[in-house]
Amino acid sequence: MKKKCAWVVSLVIIVPLLALFLSVQGVMAQGKYPAKPVTVIVPWSVGGSTDMVARVGAKILQEKWGVSVNVTAKPGGKGIPGTVEALSATPNGYTLLADADGSNAIPAAWGKDVPFKIEDRTYIAKIAEFPWVFAIRSGLPWKTLDDVAASIKANPEGIKWGWLGGTAGADGPVGQFRAALKKKGIDVSKVKMVTYPGGADLVTALAGGHVDIGSASTTSVGPMFTAGKIKLLAITGHNRFASYPDLQTTVEQGWKTVTFQGHVGFAGPKGLSPEIVKAIEDAIKASIDKPEIKADLAKIGALPAFAGSQDFRTYVLDLAKELKGL
Q1: What are residue 224's phi and psi, to 5 degrees?
Q2: Residue 131 neighbours by CB under 8 Å, 6+ apart
Q3: Do the first three CATH levels of 38-130+262-324 and 131-235 match, i.e. the same topology?
Q4: Which residues is 130 bridged to in the sheet?
Q5: Do 210 and 161 meet the contact criterion of CB atoms below 8 Å apart?
């Protein structure tokens, strides 16, 4: 009986030690981060600006690490479900968020009952910026934003404006334009706002004649513009864009407060370790100015705009404050 008890006691001691040993061995076998594929969640549609810039960022990480970095689009719900899923993941660096103005500054400034705070995430690196384009369905006679303003003033109920619900990056220039119209005494409250789950969906709706006007990224409008199914009125900011050299800027057309620029970067759940943040941050920083990466971004209408973890965080918080003031 004593021998049996001793044997049981030995098992009680040895089994936990063996489990601990195997666990340690597993960690050692994994080596440095990352030791397995990484998932980047895009809370918007495939083919939109956030999705396409995220794929460039994923390419950088994959080539640096030799580990698969998979971009997964989870659109719908004004970007909230996908954002919440990414930010609720275990903070181990294997689930990241393709973080854009539509998942950070805009919902913080204009969203209602948003189930997250933009302070409660780990900002990793900003990758790129891009201007937004005001596009219209091809059958309309409008040539400038002044023409749009005149039509809204004359018959606001007759205008169908496509947007992403007031919590997405494409809605930044919409908010600025509406604010500018109000300052001119134009009532925009009767314009019919039609919501779409992502920029690619909005552009498809424009091409199909379902809405009259919308704001989208240079990434999203390219194919439909080339096919002659939509027309472009203006591009946000002070500088013309190389891909559309004949397209006037909003500032050139006299709309000096309509200058919103989009951004995309990587973020993660709150509590992500500094080592993991540095691994991603360093990889992006080392590659963002390489000619091939610049070319990849140029193809989708974006410009490299690296910012490290702390600078990215500051950028977003400042942008949210600015948008709240509109």
Answers
A1: -70, -35
A2: 218, 235, 236, 237, 241, 261, 262, 301
A3: yes
A4: 262
A5: no
Return the DSSP state at 38: E
CATH class for the region spanning 131-235: alpha beta
pLDDT digits (tens, 9 = 90+) for 158-208: 999 999 877 778 889 999 999 999 999 999 999 999 998 878 889 999 999
Mention every residue, 6+ apart, whose C-beta is less than 8 A from residue 191. Answer: 152, 156, 157, 159, 161
DSSP for residue 248? P
List, in sequence order, the alpha helices (H) in the chain: 2-30, 49-65, 80-87, 105-110, 145-154, 171-183, 199-207, 218-226, 274-287, 291-299, 309-324
Measure the CA–CA gap between 218 and 302, rounded to whole angstroms: 8
Residue 111 is predicted with a pLDDT of 86
Coil, helix or strand at residue 111: coil
- Give me the mean pLDDT over the 38-48 stretch: 91
33/93 Cα distance (integer angstroms): 8
Q: Containing H/E element for 129?
A: strand 122-137
What is the arithmetic mean of pLDDT over 219-236? 92
Mean pLDDT of the chain: 89
Domain residue spans in the chain?
Answer: 38-130+262-324, 131-235
74-77, Cβ contacts within 8 angstroms, sequence gap of 24 or more: 74/41, 74/42, 74/43, 75/42, 75/43, 75/44, 75/45, 75/46, 75/197, 75/198, 76/197
> How many Å apart are CA 50 and CA 263, to the nearest integer?
8
Positive or negative: CA dihedral 98, 41, 223, 207:
negative
CATH class label, 38-130+262-324: alpha beta
